[in-house]
Amino acid sequence: MPTSFLPPRLHYSLGYEAAEHVLGVVGFGAGRPAGLAADMPFIQAPLAPLTGAAAYEIWQAHGPVRACAHGPVTGATGGGLAFGAVRLAPGPTEDAVEQAYEALFRFLAEAGCAVPLRFWNYLGDILGDEAGMERYRRFNIGRHRAFMRHLRQAVPPAASGVGGAGDSVIYVLGGQQAAVAVENPRQVSAYDYPPQYGPRSPGFSRAGRLGGALFVSGTASIVGHETRHAGDAAAQAAETAENLRALISAAGLGHALGRGAGWAVKTYMREDGADLLTPALAQVFGAGAQRLDLRGVICRSDLALEVEAFYQGG
Ligand code: 3EB
Fold first, then answer.
1. pLDDT digit string (tens) for 5-33?
2. Which of 39, 63, 116, 304 could form a disulfide with 67 if both were Cys (CB 3.0 to 4.6 A apart)?
3. Which of the listed residues 217, 270, 294 should we mutate to test ligand 1's pocket, taking the one with most ligand atoms within 8 A of CB?
4. Which CATH number do you get for residue 264?
C-alpha cells in the first residue's frame, strides 16, 4: 500500500496551532512552539520569511507518532513515515556533512523508515570560501561520500539546497518504499552536471512521486545545466515556472497544474520582491496553493530565486 501523507502545513504566524500526529516542525524565524511536546522534533532553520512574521513548516502523519531521537538526530516516526533533523557539527564542511548524512541514515534505519524520500539542506554561508573551495562544493563532496556508502537506490531522492544565515541544518522525510524519481526534460539531471560546478555533482533528483504525492525539489532558472537570465529576477521566475510545469507534467501530474488545493509551495529569494513570483506560481500551482516565501541564498550566485513544492492528491 502506498504511503499516504497529509499535506505539510505552513504557518505564517508565531501562533502554533496544536496539530494532530505531528512528525516534525521546522521554524523559520521562529523558536520551538510552546504547544509542541518537549521530546518531539523541532529544528530552527537558518532562514526567515522574506517579510513579516515567523513561520512553521509542519509535517503530519496519518496516525499516531512517537519521538525517536537517535544520536545527534531529533526525530519522530508514525504512519509509515519518519522525520529527522540534525545540525552540522563544526569542522570542515565535507566532513560535517558526511557525518550528518550518516547520522540521518542511521536514524531512518532505526525508525523503520530506511528509505529517504526528501532532504532539505540549509547551509550557512553557502557561497563562502572555505580554504580555497566554495562551501556548497564541499557540501556536495560530503553528501556524495555518505550516499556512496548508505544510499540503497539507483538515484538520490528529491532535495533542496539553500543558503541562510546561521547554523546549518539538514532534515529528511523517510518512508518504507522509495519514491519514483522524476527528471526534468528541460534540465540535465543535477547528478550529471559537468565538473565546472564542482568535483562532485549535486546528489538529488528533480522530483519524487510516491502514490498520489509529489516531492518537487528546489527548482530554479536553469536550462540544460546553465543558469538563464542572470540579473533578471522576473525572467528567472518565468523560466522557473516553465521548469516546474515541465517537471510536474513529466511526473504524470499534469492534472494537478493550477489546482491550488493539495499544493504547498516554498520560495527562496535573495532580495525582496516575492510579488514578481505570484503570477508564475498562480499559473503552475493555482491561486489556492499554500505558500511560504523565505529569504535565502541560492547555491549559484547568478540565481535570484528557487521554488520547491509538495503535492498530495486528494
Ligand atoms: C539546481 O537546480 C539548483 O544541492 O540539494 C536545487 C535543489 C539546487 C537541490 C541540492 C540544489 C539542490 O542545481 C540548486
1. 666 666 655 456 667 889 999 999 999 98
2. 39
3. 217
4. 3.30.1330.40
Of ligand 1's atoms, which has the minimum distance to the CA of residue 139? 4
Q: Please state, in angstroms and rounded to a whole number, the distance separating the CA atoms of residues 18 and 40.
A: 12
Is 306 catalytic? The answer is yes
User: Separation of 114 CA from ligand 1 center, angstroms?
Assistant: 23
- For ligand 1, the distance from its centroid to the CA atom of residue 275, given in whole angstroms, is 23
Q: Is residue 307 part of a domain?
A: yes
> CA–CA separation, 286 vs 67, rounded Å?
35
Rounded CA Rg of the chain: 18
Instruction: Note the pLDDT tens digit of each residue in 285-313.
Output: 999 999 999 999 999 999 999 999 999 98
Structural domain includes residue 1: no
Give me 88's grid cell.
552540522
Residue 201 Cα, ligand 1 centroid: separation in angstroms? Answer: 10
- For residue 303, give the ligand 1 atom closest to its CA: 3
CA-nearest residue for atom 13, ligand 1, is 190
Note down the domain range covering 64.
Answer: 9-311
**Cell numbers for 294:** 523565505
Separation in Å, CA 81 to CA 65, 177, 279, 301: 9, 10, 34, 35
Instruction: Tally the domains of the chain.
Output: 1
Active-site annotation holder among 94, 98, 242, 306: 306
Q: Would you say residue 57 lies in a domain? A: yes
Provide the sign of the torsion angle of the four alpha carbons 101, 103, 106, 107, taken in this order.
negative
User: Are 206 and 219 a contacting pair, CB within 8 Å?
Assistant: yes
- Ligand 1 first shell, C-beta below 6 A: 121, 159-161, 190, 202, 204, 217-218, 220, 222, 299
Is pTM beyond 0.85? Reply is yes
Q: Is 210 helix (H, G, I), strand (E, B) or coil?
A: strand
